[in-house]
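Course assignment 3, question 2. Fill in each field.
Student: A.L.
Task: Predict the tertiary structure for the chain below.
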Amino acid sequence: MGLLHGSTRKSPGNSAFDAGSLQGMAHSEQGVLEVRQAQPDDVDALAELGMEIQQLHAQGRPDVFREANLSALREFFESQFTLEKHALIAIVGQEPIGYLLAEHIQREGNAFNHESSILDIHHVAVAASARRRGRQGT
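Answer field:
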């Protein structure tokens, strides 16, 4: 599973964010890939996917990252279902293969800055079994 940190900024004055605009379906050799907004029923799948990446982080940087703990990951993912936070899950067939966690941050304008609407992407994870299956040259 891979992890990416970053953010996406929408233009000033455009503060609306619709998580549904990130959802979709695509066809691949492995079947139909569905990306949809995660639901509370998906917490176990999200936590299982999170275990792999957390284990990699803890092995690589034990001074920064905690050991993977399925119960703690379930609790964390349960906390992601708020108006400001967005969790998307990628599924092929019945198998969850990845997720994206993001937070919508709106800031009012002030004497220094224009108002802004930022989608801060915290995690992008893809199961090892689903990596490197994209189509090159398309």
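Instructor remarks: The longest helix spans residues 43-60. The chain has a mean pLDDT of 81.
Grade: pending
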